[in-house]
Design brief:
Layout: E1 2-3, E2 28-30, E3 62-65, E4 75-77, E5 80-84, E6 89-94, E7 100-105, E8 115-117, E9 120-124, E10 129-134, E11 140-145, E12 155-157, E13 160-164, E14 169-174, E15 180-185, E16 195-197, E17 200-204, E18 209-214, E19 220-225, E20 235-237, E21 240-244, E22 249-254, E23 260-265, E24 275-277, E25 280-284, E26 289-294, E27 300-305, E28 315-317, E29 320-324, E30 329-334, E31 340-345, E32 355-357, E33 360-364, E34 369-374
Amino acid sequence: MRQAFEELVPSVSTKSTPATRPITRLIHHTARFTSAPPTIPRPGRPTVQVTPRSDNTIEPAWMFKCEEEVRSTPCIADDRLYIGCYDNNIYCLDVNTGQLIWKYPTEGGVPGTPTVWQHLVIIGSEDYRVYGIHRSTGKVEWTFATRGRVRSSPRVHSDRVFIGSDDGHIYAIEAHRGTGVWRHATHAPVRSSACFLDRLLFIGAEDGMVYAVDISTGEVRWRARTNGGVVSSPAIYEESVICGSMDWNVYAFEAGSGWVLWRFRTNDRIVSSPCVHERYVYIGSVDGHIYCLDAEHGKLVWKYKTEHQVTSSPWVENGYVYCGGVDGYMYCLDAKKGELVWRYRTEGSIPGSPRTANGLVYFGSLDHYVYALPAQVEPPSSFRRYP
């Protein structure tokens, strides 16, 4: 239920400024070294298959080594890349070179995706807090305390931050100062992240529900039950809300009422979040496939088989689908045909999602690295703008 914020935990005092360390190498940057960067073994060689336009091997433009697993998805803004890590740090890197600009240490792992709003980068941590950090300096401007680990990613709408927590609540936080506005109680951890249509936010929870909540008041307009937990983050297509569930299904709900418009069954659980592009939905499944569905009717367009589970969420750019796998590969597929363009192997699983900018694709891996690979963003010969 909705609760007034007089009952909530107050914001926590801010911390000191994180230290900034100089970085000297282009291809291989690390956050920890003394006089010279260490020699680190190269990751697995990329494997190129099937398509005639992928004759060359893929070499990273740069790599940055963190101190622990990188499960976070990068956020890119103004030539800076922001990403969380399980070494408890939030990193700010130069998007072109991978050099460290600053890092801020929280007191827990940071699996979520940062978001940029005005002069702040906002992110949650498993130390139960949400942070508002100055983008330029790395200084914390505010923190907000929940009562559980924060694995949901923040979303900003109407000058408010909306985020879930393992304490079972959806929170609305004033973005300027980090003060609470309202919270709504679900019955399980909220690790999904919100999307918006008009004055409603849509978010899933591990109680199996997808919630539609008024962004001003925190009142629930509707909730729709699936038969499994909802870790997947919803996406909007026209007047429908599309989301995956641990019951193996992808759902499309009518945004105004919560009625099920269609559902598509995969062969295992869905942790991945849908990426809606044009009139198509791209999503991964624990069954090891990356799927492309028709967003209007939920019909299968194509599916691509990887070598392991797919918990990463796809990203579509200029006719290509980029998606990581538990098999350690970053895949680049033709968005129309589902054919492999290239794949690049890291030394760890890739649970986070990629992002593209400046002709590069950026992502993190459980091998502790953040990667920047050539995205090859020229449209493939088969690509045509969808009608």
